[in-house]
Every structure is written in C-alpha cells, then in structure tokens.
Amino acid sequence: MRISKLVGERLKDSASTANVKSHNYLLRAGYLKQVCNGIFSMLTPAQRINLKIQNIIREEMDAVGGQEVLFPVVMPRELWEKSGRYFSIGQEMVRFKDRNDHDMLLGMTHEEAAVHLCQNTIKSYDQLPFMIYQIQTKFRDEARPRAGLIRVKEFTMKDAYSFHYDKEELQEFYKKVYDSYNKIFKRIGMKNFIAVKSDSGMMGGDIAHEFMLLTDIGEDSIVICPHCDYKANMEVAISKEIKPQFENTEKKEVYTANAKTIEEVCKLLNISAIQTIKAVCYAIVGDDTNTVIAFIRGDKEVNEAKLKKIIGKDIAVKDLSDTGLVKGNIGCLNLNLPNTTVVFDKSLEDMQGMATGANKEGYHIKGVNLKRDLENVEFVDIAKVKEGELCPVCGKPLTIKRGIEIGNIFQLGTKYTKSMDMTINMPDGTLINPLMACYGIGVGRALASVAEESSDEKGLVWPMSIAPWQIYFCPLRMDDNSVKEKAEELEKSLSNNFELLYDDRNVSAGIKLTDSELMGIPLRVVISPRSLSNNEAEITIRKSGEKIMCKLDNLNELLKNLINKEMEELNG
RNA sequence: CGGGGUGUAGCGCAGUUGGUAGCGCACGUGGUUUGGGACCAUGGGGGCGGGAGUUCGAGCCUCUCCACCCCGACCA
C-alpha cells in the first residue's frame, strides 16, 4: 500500500473531544472517523486490524470445534416473542416495521436465532455438544456511547452458542471456551487482562465470566483479592462479614433535631456509622405507585445491581417528596406503608444496639435489636463491596480495580431452549430441553482495548499479530533518483514477503518518521542516501525503539526473523 | 432521562461595547530546501449548527429546536 494514496490523514492536533487515549490516537492516526454519536467508519488500517483479530478468533473457535454460521441482522418480532425478550428488552433494541407493517427488529444478540437454527434439525443427544458462531454486525441503541470504540451503538461481534445434554458436559465445554478466550486475547497482544465472575444480567442463567482488561478508563469495577484467586465484577462481588456486637439495650426514642445524614446522627449520638441502620429508597421504573426501601448498615452502600436482581425490576433512586416518609428519619420499626417492598441487607442480621430513624421528624430510635424488634425478616445480600473489606475466600483485604469488558461467557441453561421449545431425544427415549451457553467478543472494542493498552507518547504500538501492516517502508529523500529507484525496487521485493506500507511521499523526514510512529507499525525500514552509500537500511522496532543497521542483502532475512520472533511470543 | 459543557474552513482555534469573518495546520501552483512535523511567494475554500425574533445592521443580544462531548442513570 502506498501512503500517498491511502485514504485518511494523520493529524498533528488531537480532537478536543477525544479524551481517551485509544480514541484520540485512532482519530489522529487516520484509523477512524465518527459518523454520529456512537457510530464510526473504520478506514483501511483499522479494517485490516479488524480482519486480523477476526481471523485469530476464527482459528481459536474452529480449534474447539466451532462451526461458523451467519445469522440475519433483521429478525421478525415473533422470534423474540417466544423467548420473551421482545418485551423485556427496552429501548436498546431497535424496532421498526417493514413495508407490510410487520414488526421487525435489529439483532443485538442472537440466542433466538441460534435456537431457531438448531431446533428440529438437532434431534438427538448424539449430535451434542456442538458450537455455532458468527462474526457479524450488532446494533444496540446504547443510552450513552463513550470513549470512541469502547462503547458504541454499532459494532462487529463474534458471538458463539453451544448446546449440551447435561450440566457436566456443558461445564466441560465451557471450560474449553474459557481457555480458548485466554488464548485469543493473548494472541491479539492483550496483556493485562483477567477473567472474573460476573452477573449474568438479563441473559439469564447462573455461571458467567467476563474477561476484563484492567485499565483506569474501564467502565466496570472489579473486586480482586491479591492473595488468592478471588476475582469478581462489583455487581456480584461479596466480602466476608465482620459483625461487631454492641450492647443489647432497650430501644429508646431520642430527639435528634436536624440530624439527618448518617454522619450527623453519629456525631450527635456519639456512635460510629457501623452502629446505624441506613434507609435507601427506590422507585420501580415505570411504576409510580410502588416503592422499595432498602435497609443497610450505615457504613455500607447498596449495590443496585444486586437489589435489582432481587426485586426483579428496574429501580431508580427515589425522590421522597411525594411519599409519607420523612427524609433523614426513615427507620425500620413501625414502618407501615402500602405498596412498599422492604429489603434488609445481610449486614444487619443479628445486629443489636443499633440506631435507626423513628419515622417522624426530629427523632431516631436507639438500641434496636433486629432479631428482637422485627418479625419475619429475611436478610439478603445487597451490599457493595468496599476496598479493604475481606476476601470471602481467604479473608485477606480486597482491592478494587477498573476494567473494560473485552469478552463474556455465560452458562445459559435452558432459558432459551425451554421458552422456544427446543427438545432433543435422550438415550432412554425421553425428551429434554438442551442446555446452552453463549460466548461473545466485540471486535472493535478489542481493537480499541489493545490500542488503549499499547501506546506511548508518540502514538500507537500495535502487536505484530494484528498490526495493519508489518513494516513501514520509509525511504528518505524521495527527490534523490538513486533513493527513489532503490525504493521502488525494494518495495517490489519486500511486498512479496511482507505486509508493507510504503511511504512514497516526497516530504521531510520528520513527517514520515512521526507518521510511522503515530500509526504504530511494528517495524520501520528507512533507506536514504546516507544508508545506501553503505548499502544498508535502518530497521527500527516501534515497541522498543531499538535501531538495527542492516545490509540490504540481509534485509529479507532479518525482517523475517524479527517478525517470527514477535509472533512466537504472542502465540506462546 | 437528569446535571454540566461545546458548536465559526478538512483539523485545531481567535473573533473586543453588535458594524457585515480571521489565524495556524492541511490543500493547489511556482521556486528554494531535505535523517525528526522546512521556507518564500501565490491561490482556493466557510458566512459562523438550524429556525424565529430584536435592530438601520447579528458570529456576538433574546427565544426555540438540533447535534456533539463529559458525569450520572442504563449497558443482554
């Protein structure tokens, strides 16, 4: 490829709107152009990376027996009504009518299509397990796209679906794909990534893992134990409970005047937050009449993802202006509100000597003993894990890090095969709904994640395995005929063996060299009157900055060795 | 959807108390240069996000709509 003809320009100034490193460099180096919020065109260099990532994914999926298929982007309403998701999914799914007034939708995931494809064609346990996968465009009308390619509305995704006849066999296969994912991310040059336990969300099912690239710009919080193997998404993370026991006293109403916040009440009563009961109120989204009140120990915070799962509906923090509750004085005793679901966090179980609101202006109640003063209370885990709390496995302090979700795998169970009525015959003649698992990787997000992780102050630094070109061929002084002739000759011979981006422009050395660095091509080959006088070329390794002078006769071989060496490292 | 911010040339930006749009980069042409974003000359390109209003006159004021960015909600 000649750079003079390459569409897209390298910019000196960065776009002021792009404040995430990967986004900024991808724009500046001519990889991306935004069309509108959350929707991008990818230029040739980016598309070349996409294809390389896709091929690595393809190889690894095929290696565990995957069969590549292609589902439609557009699906009819009926297919999604069967699984129930036509109604349970909100505005993220684009719905529209075709010319015959038929309800259609854009696929944002393809469990329904996968079951549709396999039901009635797969009839026997004997045909299981198997996995089908596709690499295709997904459209999700995200509420808030952000950070360039990290969160977008339209993206290419590899999604895979496996089918199983029993749990044991499913888990065996799930483990294989888990290992395969580790391989894929390693091969595309991702370094600081981990797999964590995650919430299965509205995908349903029980066991799920997310592959996370650890980075400060990540959208997810991950709880990690530095001492053992415990790693979990904040949404599902738990910590070991430590419960101090306070003196068991009679409960007593006390005047607390204007003390409203936990902090103010603690100061006034001379206790610490751990001895208080905090109330957090939620409204159920789309339902004005019902309220949820969550009680939790004052030193803790509510994990809304956990609470949402327990309630089974969308919740949002509620403004109390239209309820009978007294803000700052809400308590768990004598709380008789209609249409209210009350939830108690596990942190309150067996606690005594606690302070809570009195449900009237200016008063709190001291000495609450939850076992004694409340009847029929079930305590559930709705607490958010905090940095420094203790690991549920080994009991040592936990840390919290940020991560980008680069892949996910879910054990779905029979959620879809049951609702869509897919059955197979078992050896004893009975019919069962097969178990399913699904596995996703966003290709564009993987590209951006590698960019986020692999760059320096000069620009991008692509791993050899996914670099748009292996070599940036950079002759200096193209006005010099001897250079130009040699350049054209070398371009021909190098192109036979390597992926070459040929900087054929007659511009100053500075422009060429900085462009090569900004674009992040792993190897740069420079020739100039100076180097040619010694019959040499200069090779620069982008990653390390190392420079090697090389006789032109040995150029092919040296380049081959450098490329192979990095590829071997990436492939492990 | 809530809060904050920004829209002026392809990109980055300036534009005074309202007086009829500039700068740098990029691009075209001619020339001099050439191992880390060269220089001289010259040329082309926008009517200031859209609409309405105030005014003799609006990029600057008012109203309204829109788009984009950031934080939050959401995120299969």
Structural class: alpha+beta
CATH domain topology of the largest domain: BirA Bifunctional Protein, domain 2
Q: What is the CA-CA span between the terminal residues?
A: 30 Å
The biggest sheet amounts to: 9 strands, mixed
What count of structural domains? 3
CATH superfamily of the largest domain: Bira Bifunctional Protein, Domain 2
Low-confidence region ranges: none
Share of β-strand residues: 25-35%
**Overall pLDDT score:** 90
Could you characterize the architecture of this molecule?
The protein has 572 residues and is of the alpha+beta class. The protein has 3 domains: 3-238 and 400-452, 2-Layer Sandwich (BirA Bifunctional Protein, domain 2); 252-380, YbaK/aminoacyl-tRNA synthetase-associated domain (YbaK protein); 469-571, Anticodon-binding domain (Rossmann fold). Helices cover 27% and strands 28% of the residues. It is built from 15 helices and 31 strands. Strands 3, 7, 8, 9, 10, 11, 12, 21 and 24 form a 9-stranded mixed beta sheet that branches. A hairpin with a 5-residue loop joins strand 5 and strand 6 (103-106). The longest helix has 21 residues, at 167-187. The radius of gyration is 30 Å and the shape is globular. The mean pLDDT is 90. The chain binds one RNA strand of 76 nucleotides through residues 9, 11-19, 34, 36-37, 85, 88-93, 108-109, 111, 140, 142-144, 146, 151, 200-204, 219, 304, 314, 316-317, 405, 408, 410, 438, 440, 476-477, 479-480, 506-515, 526, 528-531, 538.
